[in-house]
Amino acid sequence: FRSNEYKSYLRMVAQNYGEADQAKFLDSAKDVVKREAFNMQRCLDKGQLREGLIHATEMLNELRTSILTPKSYYELYMMVTMELTHLTMYMSSEFIKENKIADLYELVQHAGNILPRLYLLITVGVVYIKSKECSRKDILQDLVEMCRGVQHPLRGLFLRNFLLTSTRDILPDVDEEPLDNGAHENDDGTVDDSINFILLNFSEMNKLWVRMQHQGHSREKSKREQERLELKILVGTNLERLSRLEGVTVQRYQEHVLPAILKQLINCKDSIAQEYLMDCIIQVFPDEFHLKTLDTFLETCCQPQGTVNVRNIIISKVNRLSKYAQEDPKNIPEDIKLFEIFSAKITQIIQTRSQMPSEDILALQSALIKLALNVYPDETGYVDTVLESTSEIFNTERCVLRSDDELLSGTYDAENM
Hints:
- By secondary structure, this protein is mainly alpha-helical.
- The protein is 69% helix and 0% strand.
- The chain has 19 helices and no strands.
- The chain is elongated, with a radius of gyration of 26 Å.
């Protein structure tokens, strides 16, 4: 294993060299992966699983690197995980037949370093669950908890992404059935177990993602932000997976899923995470879910960091529900007054953000007018309400007006009106 001094030296070298040298580091790691993957496959062909696991461990050790950029690390990660499919296929065909998968699950826990150990444990754990020899709920809980052992942001993010993608097709998606005596018991797990599994994985991934912002020198802040944006989809995949669970009903989303997501979003106090995750919520969950939780979501929009672009988030929400209403007016229940809700919350947001640029205020009010015209074409008074409200906002001392030169320069795009 590489010493800590050598690792520090490699990190320093990587930071001081350009893309050409980054490519060399990546090519060197790929060469090791190819060699160890070939040796692993040869051992598996001979039925020598223990020796194959040794080569798999050496291959996975390359993911312990700290010198690759996120883009290069992703390329290496994809190569390594692709090779792991051969190990999965071998175990599925050989060990399930002999009912030895439980012994194998114990065996891989003795791998020397924690990162290759957890990759192997996830690989074997998925096969173990598919063998139906164990409690799916317990194995999934073990895996998501043990991944806490990797706290390096980049390595931890990709490890948890591997966990999420590997378990994609085996998460329980059924409600708990009552027994004859009225009690409930389901060792195989229910959709609630899947929700808790994904939410925990999401929470830990978001923490790792946010932590990336606080590593390194302050002069590299913009570079770190760009690297984080390249990795945002890893965190968002958790929410996409939640939205695909058939057992996630409107009630579960309203009472459990959304509150947990919003709690993590607010507590992280990170503008990049807050802006991306709020947009992700809007994009991945069904329209019906947004209608039932509209007040809760808009209330949260008043709480993010001051640098979060709330304008884009609100407008995206307005456009999403406006389109849904246009598809069929019956989609919007009579007790949900879209215009009144959005109007009240937008006014509240503008009041709480005294430094909001004038072009953002105009864009929000413009979105309200579009909502009124598209969804409530007969309610002409709604447009008058928006215009009056806009006039009042710009006549208050709380509004920070831009100079005439700035407005004339085209900062605000009139096409947004």
